[in-house]
Amino acid sequence: MSKIIRTRKPSVLPYYAAALVFVVLCAVLPVYRLWAFAAALAAAAAAFLAAKKVCPPRVMETEVPFHTGVEDVDAMLADIQQKLDTLHSLNESLPDPQLSAAMTRMEKAGRSIVEVVEANPAKAKQVRRFANYYLPDAVNVLQQYAQLARQGVRGENAAAIRAEVEHNASSIATAFENQLDALYAAESMDLSADLTVLQNMLKGQGLSK
């Protein structure tokens, strides 16, 4: 999910104003004397402060795909998103309904993984292998499948490749879903522990059989 990052960039005009005032006073005052040099510095500082009030910092807006506060996590999520977009485009171009259904499952699980990690960047380490190997390999295989389909390649080898991809697509989708499910393992344990505590409290108060 793209975000707008706002940064404040100070104006350079106050520095130019201070430098200009200092140069002009150095030209008209005997700056070799301490009082004149100090006066030039004071005037330059006053010019700087006055110009700073007149020329406030500029607010720069930059759109970024992700902003978790961890640079390498943002890069990983952007890469996953790009590959999922490729997967979506491939899905739209392939007519096989079973393969399309499996690819839809892959994309749905992948985007949910992105949402979970974006909300909790600490979970990024749990999906490194998914991001670096599983997803890229799956997209690469499906791209090759799509290329064969577009070129209308016939023959035993091409048919065997297509059959293997179609046969394994559902298993790949399941693996993606298992990766998503694994991200909730800690939450599931915490919830189970909380329910156990609640049940024991209710039993202790005679409110539960």
List keywords for this structure.
mainly alpha, two-stranded antiparallel ribbon, 2 strands
How would you describe what is shown here?
The chain has 209 residues and is mostly helical. The protein contains 7 helices and 2 strands; from the N terminus they run βααβααααα. The protein has helices spanning 13-28, 34-54, 71-93, 97-119, 128-151, 156-182, 185-204, and strands spanning 3-9, 58-64. It has a two-stranded antiparallel sheet with strand order 1-2. 19% of the residues are buried. The model has no long low-confidence stretch (mean pLDDT 82).
Quick synopsis:
The chain is mainly alpha-helical and 209 residues long. The protein has seven helices and two strands; from the N terminus they run E-H-H-E-H-H-H-H-H.
List the helices and strands and how they pair.
Elements: E1 3-9, H1 13-28, H2 34-54, E2 58-64, H3 71-93, H4 97-119, H5 128-151, H6 156-182, H7 185-204
Antiparallel strand pairs: 1-2
Helix pairs in contact: 1-2, 3-4, 3-5, 4-6, 5-6
Strand order, biggest sheet?
1-2
Low-confidence stretches: none
- H and E string: EHHEHHHHH
* Percent helix: over 70%
> Main β-sheet, in a few words?
2 strands, antiparallel
Number of helices: 7
Which descriptor suits the 3D outline?
Answer: elongated
Mean pLDDT: 82
* Proportion of strand residues: 5-15%
Output the radius of gyration.
31 Å
Structural class label = mainly alpha
Number of strands: 2
Distance between the termini: 47 Å
